UniProtKB/TrEMBL annotation:
Organism of origin: Candidatus Accumulibacter phosphatis
Biased composition (Basic and acidic residues): 226-240
Stretch list, region Disordered: 226-253
Name of the featured protein: Class III cytochrome C family protein
Keyword Signal among record annotations: yes
């Protein structure tokens, strides 16, 4: 390659580098800015640090964390906030670029729906309904809070809980959640909420059958069918000699 060609190529590279710094919005911008930042169209370094990309420190120089979702950058109340509950004040770190991108012109720079719940403070992670509206179906209308017992914060579906895996809600047991689960704690349950399942009644019936360990009802009973009984090892016992199967226990002495 001749000396003249090398000089021309070097001059072009230098010119492109200079143009990229002088007119970055024309040379390297990935797309048009969002409407709220269009006044910064010719001032890339209002949000970007040279050679380092977008900077959250520059974001919060205009958007004060205490005012986000409540006031505009000029201190006026927001008439129609994008969320019903301001939550930016509850973030553990102000990492704006983890969720936001100012460039709306190129699809790959649209980061809508990319909120990372790990950015929230620990005590806020359990307050799902302070930001999210509860589903209106008949099941969720009975539940208040504790969403994380069935759902994770990455995806709402699929839910991690299958009630039939533990107990089939058929016949008389198709009841409200609070009948068996008290205080919205779905990791625990009681069968003593019904008159026929009083502690004294259950104890008497099980002692008659020689069964002393009857605290964990669903270990043996998986549905409303009295004859559908499973033993302590989860094996179906069924009917034997015209009677319900029972666990082997010592006598009461």
């Amino acid at each position: 390659m001749s000396r003249i060609v090398k000089i021309i190529l070097a001059a072009n590279l230098i010119a492109l580098a200079i143009l990229a710094f002088v007119y970055p919005q024309l040379m390297v911008a990935p797309g048009t800015l969002i409407p709220g930042h269009q006044q910064l169209d010719a001032d890339c370094f209002a949000c970007h640090t040279p050679l380092m990309g977008a900077s959250s420190e520059l974001c919060i120089s205009c958007h004060k964390p205490a005012d986000i979702g409540r006031l505009t950058t000029v201190g006026l109340p927001i008439a129609k906030p994008l969320t019903t509950t301001p939550f930016h004040q509850k973030l553990a770190t102000q990492d704006c670029v983890a969720c936001h991108s100012d460039h709306a012109g190129v699809r790959r720079f649209r980061q809508q729906g990319r909120f990372n719940h790990a950015l929230l403070k620990k005590d806020t992670l359990q307050q799902c309904q302070s930001c999210h509206k509860a589903p209106a179906d008949s099941l969720h209308q009975q539940i208040s809070g504790n969403c994380s017992q069935c759902h994770n914060q990455e995806k709402w579906l699929p839910a991690s809980f299958d009630h039939n895996k533990y107990f089939v809600l058929d016949r008389d047991h198709n009841a409200r959640c609070v009948t068996c689960h008290l205080g919205n704690d779905y990791s625990r349950y009681t069968c003593y909420g019904c008159h026929e399942h009083s502690l004294a009644n259950i104890r008497r019936k099980h002692i008659e059958e020689g069964i002393r360990d009857f605290d964990n009802c669903v270990e043996c009973h998986r549905s409303a069918d009295e004859d559908d009984i499973k033993g302590s090892h989860g094996e179906r016992e069924g009917k034997r000699d015209g009677k319900r199967g029972r666990k082997e226990h010592d006598d009461d002495d």
